Structure formats: C-alpha cells, structure tokens
Amino acid sequence: MPRKPRVRSGSGVTMHDVAKAAGVSAITVSRVLNQPQQVSEPLREKVMQAVDALGYVPSRSASTLASARSRTVLVLIPSLANTVFLETLAGIETVLDAAGYQMLIGNSHYDAGQEFQLLRAYLQHRPDGVLITGLSHAEPFERILSQHALPAVYMMDLADDGRCCVGFSQEEAGAAITRHLLSRGKRRIGFLGAQLDERVMKRLDGYRAALDAAGCRDAGLEWLDPQPSSMQMGADMLDAALAARPDCDALFCCNDDLAIGALARSQELGIAVPERLAIAGFNDLQPAAWCTPTLTTVATPRRDIGVHAARALLRLIDGEEPESRRADLGFRLMLRRSS
Amino acid sequence: MPRKPRVRSGSGVTMHDVAKAAGVSAITVSRVLNQPQQVSEPLREKVMQAVDALGYVPSRSASTLASARSRTVLVLIPSLANTVFLETLAGIETVLDAAGYQMLIGNSHYDAGQEFQLLRAYLQHRPDGVLITGLSHAEPFERILSQHALPAVYMMDLADDGRCCVGFSQEEAGAAITRHLLSRGKRRIGFLGAQLDERVMKRLDGYRAALDAAGCRDAGLEWLDPQPSSMQMGADMLDAALAARPDCDALFCCNDDLAIGALARSQELGIAVPERLAIAGFNDLQPAAWCTPTLTTVATPRRDIGVHAARALLRLIDGEEPESRRADLGFRLMLRRSS
DNA sequence: TTGTAAGCGTTATCAC
DNA sequence: GTGATAACGCTTACAA
C-alpha cells in the first residue's frame, strides 16, 4: 500500500523519468551521462533527446551517496579580503572546472581553530580532496585529515616532511629582497610586519638571515603588529618607526599594503624615497606599479600555485603520483623606484 | 544473500553506528543533531558522547537526498579578481555561516552564456536559493530559475519589476559624482569606461543625464573599451583622451582601477590635478585613499549588500517575506584631492 | 518521547 | 550492450 509521495527536490525530473521517456532503463541513462562509450549510438541519442526534452539535471547528492565520490574539492584559505588568495582561487578554478570538479571555499580568517571547525563542517560534503593554505595547522586538523585519508595539497610554501606542496620559499624571498636593499648601500634596514601569520614570520626569518650574513642586523629595527594589515597601518607604522629610529634607512614591509601606506606617508612628510629611506613590499599587487614612486616588491606566482596545486590534487585523488610532491614555483624581485 | 559491501565514503562512521553505540535508534540520533529539544536530556547526552567518541560526521548528500533541502546557497558573481565582489562574498559568508548554510561560488567571467551554464551545473547540488549579481541575464537563465522555483535575490542594483533586490542606484551614483564635478566648475567632463557591464553602462547613463541637465553633454568625451579594466588601461585611456580632446577638464572613470592609472599617468605627464584635470573613480577601494593625490570616488556598500541579500534570501527560503523586496543601501561621495 | 518502515535518486554488482 | 536489484546514509510519515 503506497504512502503519500514525498516532496521532490529540483524540478522533479529524475533519471527514471528520463529512462521511461527514452524507453530504456535508468542505468542506461546513467551510462550515457557518465560512460557514453559503453552505450550504443542509437540509444545514446534517444537518451540525450529525453534529457534535453525534460530538462533533466542529475542530482549530485544521489550520485555522491551511491558512488562515494563527490567530485568536490575543499579549498581552505585564510582570508577572502586578500587579492593574493583570490588569484590563487582563480587558478584553482580553471583546473577544477575543466575536470568537472567543483570547489567549496572555506575561509579560516587566519585562525587555526576556525580552520579546524571549517574542515569538520565541510567534511559533511565528503570532498574528494583538500587544498590547504600554509603548512602549520592545529594538531586535530592534521589528525582529522589522516583519519579520513583525505588527499591534500599544501599551497604557498614548501614543506620538508613529504607533504605534497606547491609554492616557493617565503624565507628565501624575504632574504632576497633584503639583500637587494643591502646592495643599494642601506645598512639600517627595518622590517614592518602585520598579521604575523606563518608566511610573514618566514619572511622575517629570511630578512634576519640576510642581515646576519651582512653583519648588520639590529633587533631594534623590527616592528610587528598582529592586527590585519592595511595601508593605514603602514602609514602609522612608518610614523612609529621613524620616531623610534630616525636613523633607519630602509624598510622591508611584509606586504604591499603596508608598503603603500608607508610610501604615501613618506611623501606627505617630504621624506626622500629611496635616497633617505628605501621601501620594499611583498606580492606585487597591481597598485605597486602605479603608486608614487613605484614600489619595489617581490612578485609571487599565486595564480600558478593554484593551477599546479589543483592539478597535483586531482592526480592524488585518482591514486596517481603528482608530477612533483614539492613544486617550487619561485618568485621574482620587481625593482622599481622606491629602492 | 548479502552482496559484497560497497566502499564507504568519509571515515565510514554512519548514523547507525552512532545509534548502536548509544543504544538508541538512528532516528533518535538524527533528532539529537537536528531538533535536540525533541529528545530527552539523558538520551541526548548518550548520543552526543557516541558522536564524539566515533568522530561521526553526518553526510550532507544523504541528508539532502532524504530531506530535499541542501542548506546550500549558490552565489553568482562576475569575477573573482575584483575586490568589490570579494567583500560582498565576505558579507554573505557571515550570514550564511551563522545560519548553517554553505555557499557555492560561481564565477561567470562577466559572460551571460557562462552564467547560464554555471547555473545549470550548480543545480546538480540542488541549492535552496541563489544570490545573483546584476539584473540582466540571459533568457534561459531566468527561465530555469522559475522552472525550478528557486528563491533568488539580485545584488548590486535596484529592480523595478518586483524581483527581490539589494543594492543602490548605479545610475543615480553616476549622476551624483558628475554633478560634483560640475560643482567644481568643470564643464568638459569626460567618461572613461571599461568592461562595459550592466553597471558601468548605468553609471554612464547617470553621467549623461547629469550633463544633459547642465546643458554641457558632449558625446565626443566618452571613451569606452569592452576589455576588463586595469590601472594600465586607465593610463592608456588618459593618453588617448587627452590626445583626442586636450580641452577635457575632468574625467569620471567607471571604477577606481582606471582612475588610479589615469591619475598616475597625469602625474608623470605633469598635468595639474585637479586644477587642469579633475579625476573621479568609483567604489572607493583601499588605494583610493593612498594614491597621490588622493582620489575622489563613490563609496559603495558592497559588504552590506552581501549581508542584506543573504538575510533576504534566507527568509525567502523559509517561505517568509524579506524585510524589503527592494533594499536601497545608497552610496556616498568621497571627496578627496583629485577633484 | 521514541521507534519502524519506506523512500529520496543515483550507481555498483551481477546476470543475461 | 543492456537490465534487474540492492545498496548508499539519511529523514519523512506514521505508529506506539
């Protein structure tokens, strides 16, 4: 004795409806959609006509449930407000789209605790893999990853413990731009840092190493603020830095936002850049090439990181080895007028 | 006779496992997770302990399939490379997160055809509703929306046909900034436009209306390029504009990127801004307050648009009426040194 | 307040 | 090459 039918999702057209309309069985419809070569030409045509005629849209939930594959990838980023991660997302998108995968975006707000919660929450969707920003994560985060045997690729930095990663050496980049300032004759080079996430701290390490090597490191020239960075903050930090150390002759800012704010304030104060004070940023965002004076900075291959990371993840998901488990995409110094 | 068991998704723990561990039935576990107040205190505790002990993560696919609700919202934006939409996403995220909804992000690349394909593709996830950027869409796009009876909220602009929308009048904003330039004594005010999407064209309409009202509209002062905008393009367009019309005494750029590029080029060329040439942008992105000279522009409430649109959509999904079917969040003129 | 049975729409398995 | 049948993990409807 049949019961009251339930509410249907979507427009209500199911694979069975298509099958009936085409005069075949449901499984044949499934094959036409997923492994067309296994179905004979005439049946394939009939089925496709029925699909179009009925406006049939397959249900991902049903497919995921039945096949234990969601064709979905979770992307964990620390912020939606930072162009750097957006361009990475854009790169990821091109690859996943082409492969028929869709991405779920999780924003951790630079918080390891939230990142863990996000992972747990998104696990409900049974993603086939995860793209992760950065290498350091909460202990339960890593544990849950391995518990669920989730293929993962780490982005933006280079791991040395066998985890699959795509990025560049944040430390080496920090050292390289610092050496550039040294090569310009600067000796009292300061560091402005905000947010203080993992990558900023590595750039700081690189800066310190370069100055140590040159014998002119000075701990009193480091200004660090855990708040999110902004141009306003760059301006404020410049004021604080010059008040404390008027002898400072160069500044490496941990990102372009800080640098542009510092640059603008220097202009206001009539400080000669780069003669009296050289300024360098990090990331090479668009405004770096258009501020006054133009900003010396480090160009980072964030879009490519997204592309390569997504490709590597798809291979892991398919049980293959990625081309490289540790892809170093490098960085480029963009030498402009501010140094 | 039982068959070979299938592969399990996730870590393999199901609601039945939890039920067994807690000595209750599966439906009770479901209730503890979804309507806790319907379950007695002691049972609730036992179940929660079992959930934690087993590390159980519910399957969204199974839930969606059984309940015909995905607790998922599709967000359609024209670009992932534009800060404006990111901030909108961030606003949406706060509201959806709090309500236990997750968002699927579809990037149409400013292409109505792709937008339609995206909608079709994401329909596989059976989203409970859609947040849409802009008012103009392909005909099949609107058709599919109504076929599937999908609750929808349109963002960024104001509709006059009863569609639920959250935004501000792009046209009025374009007119307002133009009137400001008029009030500064400018009379040969040019327009620089890129991308030429719906919103840019409405700003252009507003610009034209304001100049018509003042009796000084001049069709020779409009420069339009369908390519995506960039600071480089702003610089190039400034060159072209001044070459064609050296008498031009102000420029309204359709967004801040163009304006900042034009501003930077003006500085290079030694053109006095705003005396000889005033420049205004649109959106008030962060660099607008930090370029030289600072940029006059229109501040748009994009984050709030996201927040309000998401709230309205959740109400529609629940079958209630939103607070307003046409929420005008306004805009603000940011008058700075470039005018 | 709790449980039973059926069914959501698809795919894996096995048979023809 | 095609089809019948049984899962997949959960929630609805209904009963106790």
Automatic annotation (TrEMBL), chains A, B:
Record-linked PROSITE patterns: HTH_LACI_1 (PS00356), HTH_LACI_2 (PS50932)
GO molecular function ontology, one term from the record: DNA binding
Domain HTH lacI-type: 13-67
Pfam families: LacI (PF00356), Peripla_BP_3 (PF13377)
Top-level taxonomic group: Bacteria
Keywords on record: DNA-binding, Transcription, Transcription regulation
Protein name: LacI family DNA-binding transcriptional regulator
